[in-house]
Target: SAM-dependent methyltransferase
Amino acid sequence: MATTTTTTKTGSNEYFAEVAEEWDEIRSGYFTEGMRDAAIAQAGLPPDAVVADIGTGTGFVAAGLAPKVRKVYGFDSSAEMLSVAKKNLARFDNVALQVAEGESIPLPDQSLDAVFANMYLHHAPDPAATIREMTRLLKPGGVLCITDLDTHTNTWFREKMADVWLGFDRTDVKKWYADAGLQKVEVDCAKGTCDCTGPSGEAIKVTVFIALGRK
Model:
């Protein structure tokens, strides 16, 4: 089972408000362009797709999606992160950014062809409920693509990055997908690892999963 903590969503918001301007550099070791692009390719999106990026942060995944689809909605609970995302995504005219919590996305039922959430789920207070909310947004045949950390024991992630969960067991993720009504569920290794430096200077690699399911 996934391991939780008493870290709150408020703590996550405070952390991202503080690091928004530096986040693109911080993020570069955690999830690379190659990992992002491989995940997007696995989703199999048509060029006229309308999609959402939940927990878009500074727009890293949205930037990978925008050239490939008709419309991208980027949602994040941090106004500071979205301020940076607005600058990063200024070259795209098909991206709309809005402050919103992942548990309550302001879009109608069955309005999207795909929903993406990269490294967001471990900040969600209730991952199963968040997956249900993402599934609500999908049209029949739409795909949910989540990339996140496997279960790990680096408890300092809670203090340093305000993580609510220390990754997830893939069996739990599969169950949450199935319980939300998704089919053809696959949870496999993403194309790379989350690489960072520990509090004592040690190099740490945490494996990353990609979870795909269709409504």
